[in-house]
Write a structure and sequence with these properties.
Elements lengths: L6 H12 L4 E3 L4 H4 L3 H13 L4 E4 L2 E3 L14 H12 L3 E3 L1 H7 L10 E5 L4 E5 L2 E7 L8 E5 L5 E5 L1 H10 L1 H4 L4 H12 L4 H11 L2 H13 L4 H8 L9 E2 L9 E3 L4 E3 L4
Parallel strand pairs: 5-7, 10-12
Antiparallel strand pairs: 1-3, 2-3, 4-5, 6-7, 8-9, 11-12
Helix pairs in contact: 6-8, 6-9, 9-10, 9-11, 10-11
Length: about 270
Amino acid sequence: MKSKIGRQEAQVLAYAQMRKRRVIRAGELREPLELNAQQERKVLSRLSKAGMIARVWRGVYLVPPRLPLGGKWSPGELLALDALMEALRGKFQVCGPNAFNRYGFDDQVPNRLYVCNNRSFGERRIGGVTLMLIQVADKRLGDTETFQTPEGVTAVYASRARSLVDAVYDWSRFNGIPRGYEWIRRELKAKRVSAAELVRCTLRYGDTGTIRRMGVLLEREGVEEKLLRKLARGLPRTSSPIPWLPRAAKRGTINRRWGVVENDRK
């Protein structure tokens, strides 16, 4: 190990590893290691600054099962996220670019983890991990898929259908239009997602703009009329049409049924 650590630091690491503790919270080291509050705070701060443990939240730290050669350690993305959400007692789901990559929509690997949650917003660093937290209301969380990581963490991702809807709903944040339209066409053709799933998910998690744009897309794809009618019933009355391609000039034929300017057609 390149980095030298003091007796107290070594005791903290030994305590966590012997008890197989993944997370240490402020206060729990004082009695077993005979530290006062100030000593505990300082030793945890030194370990965190040295990169040997990772600060998750105030008074909450992730500890490696064993310290790697060189002394530096950083948790995996999903482990860091799980620890943060446990500390905040929040609900969450991985979304956006990470979900797009997981389902094969996009082959670009994001350099941060995008997370919808009901507790916090903004960018947060935990060790070498960058989390982009998107705070939403509880009702906007749902339609997920889960799996277990080798670390024993339950990963929660937006489902395939939900991710496609999110590409249209949150197009500005995720650069989802027009490429999301092509993903939807491809997934429908391959039967990896159904039109019924998309309609259900759009009505539950989309807004007016999402319903309109999804209506045009599904109509173009020849989806059965009863599903289109179901989607149309979710539209409020409005007189102002929106563009099919939000960043293009708002010129083209207006689809009166959906209130969309089809500005991708000459």
